[in-house]
Amino acid sequence: MATVSLTPQVVFSTESGGALSSATILRFPPNFVRQLSTKARRNCSNIGVAQIVAAAWSDCPAGRPKSGGGGGRARGVASSHAAAASAAAAAASAAAEVSAIPNAKVAQPSAVVQAERNLLGSDASLAVHAGERLGRRIATDAITTPVVNTSAYWFNNSQELIDFKEGRHASFEYGRYGNPTTEALEKKMSALEKAESTVFVASGMYAAVAMLSALVPAGGHIVTTTDCYRKTRIYMENELPKRGVSMTVIRPADMDALQNALDNNNVSLFFTETPTNPFLRCIDVELVANMCHSKGALLCIDSTFASPINQKALTLGADLVIHSATKYIAGHNDVIGGCVSGRDELVSKVRIYHHVVGGVLNPNAAYLILRGMKTLHLRVQCQNNTALRMAQFLEEHPKIARVYYPGLPSHPEHHIAKTQMTGFGGVVSFEVAGDFDGTRRFIDSVKIPYHAPSFGGCESIIDQPAIMSYWDSKEQRDIYGIKDNLIRFSIGVEDFEDLKNDLVQALEKV
């Protein structure tokens, strides 16, 4: 077996011909970790073994053990492989950058944030680069933001810890309170939503719970809508009364009912989706924001069905926006997460509650969401186009009784959607011209969409809410208009003609 010596301490073992293979074996001397720059170790521990091996060594700060042989300064790389030399040079540059920063976890200056906003003028560029291209805290030459898997962060000495506690030293402390990978994700979402701040949490449902718990006081009053995610309603109906919080439920378009609730209650918050689940009703955000603010109430919009590509509720007057990042934000049906965005004054209260209670987003999940967001604008534009075509097709089909889609002129809030959305989303709800069993036959006959809950991913998903979401409560189905023949169709990024032909053959079974 041939060997290629890169340094006196590190040996790459290769199969043959001196070329690095997928079976490369890395051999580390006992003191190798101690020879790494303390800053490189702290910030590059998850960048990848190849960069760590190639990282330049620099002097350790006072109080840290120094390596032997010249105080641990960067050593030359003796290698006949251009790729290895290039990697070493890149990593040396990264390590030098880290060593030049007192802690390498400095707070992002406002000038960097402004520079990023000036550079990235469109949602497309923001989705790809925001939070990562300029000023990210992790010093690395990697294009992608590394996953930092750690439960805690260490300090050089007690004074550094005191400085951190008193706000003079920027760092992290414990995994529940912050993570560099998650921080990059939060900055990206803030850029897309035009928010001052964002906090990411373990799920969209927990984002709603944390927001309500942090911002609605005991004995407060909230307003919400009949059409919404059922589990959110269950939480508000069953859990909030335990804190003395009362609730008014209105129909999405009933502005008289909203005004009446604001006039006759000390309303803390109006919490609504737009578009709503599953009928895709749309609320005039600017109008309700003015109504709420005139009475001292906050407005929180669940914008999961829209995504920040199609709608920016904060720019319309909303105080907060929440997302189930599981859906369009991550977009690949492979990760669960949620977030709250808005004014820093409000998001900070949610963050403090979150730090106490938990519900932390795993850094690996943060990485998956970051990766998914780079194609957010492409996916959403594709889904917008296909969904509109599908809604138009279904509205003309003889075996479809009704279609719910804000892009259709027949939708009751089409005029609102046109003014506050740049696209109408990738979910189309419709009622089959048949009974419960006929609708089941249709669902069971489709071949491309998965029969599953959730929406917003690359793969199309279809479900019958009477079974999927409301099977345990016929009474609630009747109250909220969930008919036996209702279908919710989340359109992925497949070809329109393929999806249409699949639905045509399935509708023949009705």
TrEMBL record:
Pathway: Amino-acid biosynthesis; L-methionine biosynthesis via de novo pathway; L-cystathionine from O-succinyl-L-homoserine: step 1/1
Transmembrane segments: none
CDD domains per the UniProt record, alphabetical: CGS_like
Listed EC numbers: 2.5.1.160
Enzyme class: transferase
Domain of life: Eukaryota
Keywords, in A-Z order: Pyridoxal phosphate
One Pfam match: Cys_Met_Meta_PP
Cofactor(s), by name: pyridoxal 5'-phosphate
Keyword match Chloroplast: no
Key word Iron-sulfur present: no
GO molecular function terms noted in the UniProt entry: catalytic activity
Gene3D superfamilies documented for this protein: Aspartate Aminotransferase, domain 1, Type I PLP-dependent aspartate aminotransferase-like (Major domain)
Listed GO biological process terms: methionine biosynthetic process
Catalyzed reactions per annotation: O-succinyl-L-homoserine + L-cysteine = L,L-cystathionine + succinate + H(+); O-phospho-L-homoserine + L-cysteine = L,L-cystathionine + phosphate
InterPro entries in UniProt: CGS1/2, Cys/Met-Metab_PyrdxlP-dep_enz, Cys_met_metab_PP, PyrdxlP-dep_Trfase, PyrdxlP-dep_Trfase_major, PyrdxlP-dep_Trfase_small
Family to which this protein belongs: Belongs to the trans-sulfuration enzymes family.
Entry protein name: plant cystathionine gamma-synthase
Organism: Urochloa decumbens
Source taxonomy: Eukaryota, Viridiplantae, Streptophyta, Embryophyta, Tracheophyta
